[in-house]
Design brief:
CATH topology of the largest domain: Peroxisomal Thiolase, Chain A, domain 1
Strand order of the largest sheet: 3-2-4-5-1-6-13-12-7-8-10
InterPro entries: Ac_transferase_dom_sf, Acyl_Trfase/lysoPLipase, Ketoacyl_synth_C, Omega3_polyunsat_FA_synth-like, PKS-FAS_Synthase, PKS_Beta-ketoAc_synthase_dom, Thiolase-like
GO molecular function, one term: acyltransferase activity
CATH architecture of the largest domain: 3-Layer(aba) Sandwich
Domain Ketosynthase family 3 (KS3): 9-344
Pfam family, one: Ketoacyl-synt_C
Structural class: alpha/beta
Protein name: PfaB family protein
Helix content: 25-40%
CATH superfamily of the largest domain: Thiolase/Chalcone synthase
Distance between the termini: 65 Å
Shape: globular
Length: 911
């Protein structure tokens, strides 16, 4: 065998994976366990040795098919077994369609990885599969216990069973053959601890850093072994702290262990750690550690870069970084330590994910041209779910297929449900709700979000995206958006301000080695509220993300855009009029505008009132903002007596925000004798004292125009549509911000121009509530995509349910399972469509500004094109899945045959 020096070792690529543990039978289900911070600690009835060959065969086949390995590839398999399986003859495992050579089994993942590395580097094999199996012969039940042995309240880690496999190739050859790459293994460093355990860990870490040509500071996630043996755990953390500590005091590296999710799977643990860490890199998230509160011996952790995430969160690049890097620390029974460095393949643009289509809440759309037909289909759905028990995902997908056949119908009912019980209940409610909607003309909606209207607005009115003002962001906002819609990681708005995103992320998703208390979180949130620049940047960012999700995933294209206050800045960025916010972001962070002029000492007000200017960090509270529940006319009359009180915001005819001298505001409130409360935001905006900042505001909001969308933009500068000119935009925004904002006036103007569907693409849904009040007696619909305290996918699905019932042109295919091969074959005129990119929103769809009587046709064409588009993208994957289906159970085969027959029947009917 050719001798390989460490310096010349090529990197390896993980190109395929699969795993099975109790209650998680495949890779997607295991990914759900990791991301959602679940625990699968209950060992079911023992599989027994008689099932070991069948189980390992299934896992190896699935991993190879997941990697799309050619059947004629030269494949070697190394199986890691426990003592109970050591005498098992795994060379007899049958893997149909693959030419596999079985190497001698091992008891160590570390030695298996080392051997695989040598065999691939010397090109003795094209592909190496490392598989592991651990079987348990006793019934174990333990739920919701802390099995991460580093934790203060950890319990003994009981054994769990399962099987897993990873498929490895040389990364250069994998890229040459265009294989899908989950992660790159940049370094495998092995050290024997015979001299000193702590020193051995340090040595393994440092060698790994050197091999990968990185520093410890570049590692964003560390998977630890955490054996559960106190002496080993203490040695491991001490060695890691010493290896990772730097002079820079920063919580830059999250720590976790797969044992917290699945317990101790013995010899399988190393493969499970590899799969978990690879999934985190591939899907770009920091994983939650379930049941975590605080570490044992916290003094050991002092000075380390380590923190623990109690909820999964998006993994943003640190400033200056070009890729995400993770590490795994391993031990084995042969007194070896291993430190493995993994990184994402930054050229992997399409990252396979079923997370969105497999979330717990499902949308069931039903379309018909009249009441009777709609009710008939509701009853058919009810019969369907009671006649047999397919998964809710299968029912939702089948319902969507039927909807596609009738999507140009006059009415659409949208039902939401998380389980069979909820679906049955929502169906019963829908039968009554549909009748009520037809009889009264009023919308029907359940608390869960099921929705129906007999007066859809889509065919009659325009769609407006509404961008809320700043200062409503909060801790944890949008935590799941990037997991649900992974392409937004590459959204131009995020890319243009990545350095600031990484800084804001540390506020939005706080880091700590201890689980933060509610009081601590409130203090962090107040810090966010007191930082107007961070608030503005986070809200501009999320407005852009919500816009990208609606346009790029669901093909909802606005005909108008409306900004509320600083929302005028958000809409310019989100709609792609401006494409680079970095210059503005950098300027905002250096400008005194939101540091001392309009916030902090509020020197702009002091100057206007002739008060002493404050030049240091001391502040003197003299200014307050209050929200009043009172008719606008009464407020205007009373403040005539108070020259230092101003109306800054008129949200509705009876909801007003006043600002100014604290004592003078209190006198106004006392005179009005109305309901009120102080706002959490105490900055200066929309009032006369900030006129001195007009030029600065113009400067900040004057940016080059990169794109002119086919969309009408409304501004509160003159309460009218504006011309997209760089200088005019800057002056319009400055003018609107320096004067009282009359939101009803702005909305009524947009309504006069036939805008009927108002979608709030921002934080918390305040604008939606105000618009509903302003237009309460007129035909319209308001939708919000974010509500604090409501999960991201729930808010979005509720919004989609409402919009689809109003017959808005859109595509909801991303919510459902991949279109199968039979449906692919049933569509003979497949157009050539390029691989999707996050292009300017104006390029996504034909202009929606067409005659309203073409709405149905546009809706149908959009959905069909997306259907073709999805088929085209997944043709290769669908073919692989079709081949795999021959190995599946009789139930799945029967389902595919049934679908084929239905499609043939549909083709006959249409012909």
């Amino acid at each position: 065998m050719k001798k390989i020096t460490q310096q010349s070792i090529p990197t390896l690529a993980i190109v395929g994976m699969d795993c099975s543990i109790p209650n998680s039978n495949n890779l997607d289900e295991f990914d759900h366990v990791i991301y959602n911070g679940y625990q699968q600690l209950t060992t079911l009835s023992p599989a027994g040795l008689t099932g070991s060959q069948q189980l390992i065969s299934k896992i190896i086949i699935n991993a190879l098919q997941n990697a799309n390995i050619r059947p004629n590839s030269h494949i070697a398999t190394i199986i890691v077994t426990n003592n109970q399986c050591k005498d098992e003859n795994f060379s007899g495992v049958i893997c149909q369609d693959f030419n596999i050579e079985y190497l001698p089994s091992t008891s160590s993942v570390i030695s298996s990885l080392h051997l695989a590395e040598q065999l691939l580097i010397t090109q003795q094999y094209d592909t190496i599969v490392i598989a592991a199996i651990n079987l348990v012969h006793q019934q174990i039940n333990h739920l919701h216990t802390n099995t991460f042995s580093y934790a203060q309240d950890a319990v003994d880690i009981s054994e769990n069973e399962g099987a897993a496999a990873i498929v490895l190739q040389r990364s250069d050859l994998a890229k040459k053959d265009n294989h899908h790459i989950y992660a790159i293994i940049d370094a495998i460093s092995i050290s024997n601890h015979s001299l000193s355990q702590i020193k051995a860990i340090q040595q393994a870490c440092q060698n790994a850093f050197d091999l990968a040509n990185i520093t410890a500071q570049e590692i964003g996630y560390l998977e630890v072994f955490a054996s559960g043996i106190p002496q080993e755990d203490e040695v491991e953390i001490q060695g890691l702290v010493q290896a990772y500590s730097t002079d820079k005091r920063s919580l830059s590296c999250a720590v976790g262990s797969v044992k917290a999710n699945v317990g101790n799977t013995k010899n399988l643990s190393g493969i499970m750690s590899l799969i978990k860490t690879t999934l985190c890199l591939y899907h770009r998230y920091i994983p939650a550690l379930p049941q975590w509160t605080s570490p044992k011996q916290p003094q050991i952790w002092e000075g380390s870069p380590f923190y623990v995430a109690t909820e999964s969160k998006p993994w943003f690049l640190e400033p200056g970084a070009t890729r995400r890097i993770a590490a795994i620390n391993m031990m084995d029974l042969d007194s070896n330590y291993a430190h493995i460095i993994l990184s994402e393949d930054i050229n992997q643009k399409e990252r396979r994910s079923k997370y969105l289509e497999q979330i717990s809440l499902h949308l069931f759309p039903i379309a018909a041209d009249n009441r009777n037909s709609l009710l008939e289909q509701i009853h058919q759905l009810k019969t369907e779910i009671h006649s047999h028990t397919p998964s809710l995902s299968q029912i939702a997908t089948q319902t969507y297929r039927e909807y596609q056949k009738r999507q140009s119908a006059t009415y659409t009912l949208a039902i939401l449900a998380r389980n069979h019980k909820e679906l049955t209940r929502e169906i019963e409610r829908a039968i009554q709700g549909v009748n009520l909607a037809f009889d009264t003309g009023k919308e029907w909606q359940t608390p869960l979000g099921s929705y129906f209207t007999a007066q859809p607005q889509g065919p009659h009115g325009k769609v407006a995206f509404v961008y809320p003002g700043s200062f409503t962001s909060y801790i944890g906002i949008g935590r799941n958006l990037f997991r649900l819609f992974p392409q937004i990681f590459d959204d131009p708005l995020i890319s243009s301000v990545y350095e600031r995103v990484a800084n804001i992320e540390k506020i939005l998703y706080p880091r700590s080695i201890n689980k933060l208390s509610n009081r601590q979180l409130e203090a962090i949130e107040q810090k966010l509220i007191d930082d107007p620049v961070a608030m503005l940047e986070s809200e501009v960012g999320f407005a852009g993300l919500f816009t990208a999700i609606l346009q790029n995933y669901f093909h909802i294209k606005p005909e108008s855009s409306i900004g509320y206050s600083l929302g005028e800045t958000s809409m310019m960025l989100a709609q792609g009029v401006w494409t680079n916010f970095k210059k503005t972001s950098d300027y905002l962070n250096s400008s005194p505008l939101f540091k001392t002029r309009l916030s902090g000492p509020k020197n702009a007000v002091r100057q206007h009132w002739g008060l002493p200017i404050i030049h240091n960090n001391q502040t003197e509270e003299f200014w307050s903002n209050y929200l009043l529940s009172c008719p606008v006319s009464l407020v205007k009359e009373v403040i005539k007596q108070e020259p230092r009180v101003y109306i800054s915001l008129i949200n509705t005819p009876e909801e007003v925000v006043i600002v100014g001298d604290t004592q003078a505001c209190k006198r106004v409130i006392e005179t009005l004798n109305c309901d009120y409360f102080p706002t959490s935001i105490n900055h200066v905006i929309h009032c006369e004292p900030m006129q001195s900042e007009y030029d600065e505001l113009v400067k900040i909001n004057t940016l080059p125009i990169k794109n002119v969308p086919n969309c009408v933009f409304y501004s509160a500068a003159d309460y009218a549509p504006i011309i997209l000119d760089s200088d005019l935009i800057g002056h319009n925004i400055a003018k609107a911000l320096c004067h009282e904002l009359d939101f009803p006036k702005l909305i009524n103007r947009a309504y006069k121009d036939n805008n009927r569907i108002f979608i709030e693409v921002g934080v918390n849904g305040n604008c939606s509530r105000w618009i509903s009040t302003i237009l309460k007696d007129q035909d319209h619909v308001t939708v919000s995509v974010n509500r604090r305290g409501v999960e991201d996918h729930v808010s979005i699905l509720k919004a989609l349910a409402k919009l689809i019932s109003h017959r808005l042109a859109m595509n909801i295919t991303p919510l459902y399972s991949v279109v199968n091969q039979y449906e692919q074959d049933a569509l003979p005129h497949l157009p050539k469509i390029n691989t999707p990119q996050f292009v300017a929103s104006s390029q996504l769809l034909p202009s929606p500004l067409k005659a309203r009587n073409s709405q149905h046709l546009t809706h149908s064409k959009i959905t069909q094109y997306q259907k073709f588009h999805d088929n085209h993208l997944r043709l290769h994957q669908s073919h692989s899945l079709f081949l795999q289906s021959r190995q599946l159970s009789l139930q799945n085969i029967s389902l595919l045959v049934k679908q084929k027959l239905e499609l043939y029947q549909d083709l006959v009917t249409k012909s």
